[in-house]
Amino acid sequence: MIFTLFLSLFLLLKTNCSTFQECDSECIFEPVRLTSTNIGSFSKCAKVCSFLKIDHSSNLTHEQLTEAFENLQTLVGGLEIVNTTFTDAKFLNNLIRIEANTSPVRISNNENMVKLGMVNLTTIITYNFAVSGNPKMAALNLPKLQTVDCQMSPCRPVISMWNNNQNYCMTTEEMKVFLLNNRIEQFYVDNLGQR
């Protein structure tokens, strides 16, 4: 237990230092949780380094997030959208690439979310992409997604989409991204329909 905790802390610190070397200092957003008190300091760079968490305590509107992320095209670090009341994540519409090698990309427990709606996202680099516990989510809505992978060796990503709406659907093109990718270690989906 102590070894696991130490190893996790070591990897986080090591990752934070090496990951954030990819960004200019003005393009680094250090706070993990984005809130109404720190959103003004979110970088206007196209490539931002941050372990970004948006949750119920963020106290932000969809409009505030859309404005904060208007230039964001690449996020290096990690992304979690958890326990919010948003109906979608369209505030990340300009996001093209997520590079989260040692962090998950997690969209979970958002009671009103009906779709992701990140319509320009083409690439997710992570060891774990999870979309779960969103009871109203009926569609993934990532129409431009082409790549889900992990760049660390011997990493192979795990994809899990479960406990969403019973009518949860993915398009044929979205399914192909996951099913035709031999690098994916595990792909788990429940309640899946197809459009």
From TrEMBL:
Parts of the chain that traverse the membrane: none
Q: Which Pfam families match?
A: Recep_L_domain
**From which organism does this entry originate?**
Caenorhabditis briggsae
Q: Does the keyword Signal apply?
A: yes
- Do you know which InterPro entries this protein is assigned to? Rcpt_L-dom, Rcpt_L-dom_sf, SPS2_domain
Q: Does the keyword Iron apply?
A: no
According to the UniProt entry, where is the signal peptide?
Answer: 1-17
Q: What is this protein called?
A: Receptor L-domain domain-containing protein
**Keyword tags:** Signal
- Domain Receptor L-domain: start-end pairs: 44-138
